[in-house]
């Protein structure tokens, strides 16, 4: 098989970012570092705060302005 890239894409940044509501610690993690909510109606990921052990619900980081895609700069759920 000969595989040739005709247009190279880029791997999306999967880093999640969250702020602890209890102690205001800001964390970054990957989806695999998080726990999936046990409630099947909820698709939220959660991670334990390393400082106070509260539950943090991290979300995708907004794309950086240097990506050149201004359309996604303002996400409605942020
Ligand atoms: Zn905390």
Structure description:
With 78 residues, the chain is mostly beta strands. The protein has a domain at 16-58. It has strands spanning 16-19, 26-29, 35-36, 45-48, 55-56, 59-60. It has a three-stranded antiparallel β-sheet, with no helix packed on it. The radius of gyration is 16 Å and the shape is elongated. The mean pLDDT is 83. It binds zinc ion (ZN). Zinc ion binds next to loops. Zinc ion binds at residues 20, 22-23, 25, 49, 51-52, 54.
Helix content: under 10%
Low-confidence stretches: none
**Major beta sheet summary:** 3 strands, antiparallel
Mean pLDDT: 83
- Structural category is mainly beta
Shape: elongated
| Count of helical regions | 0
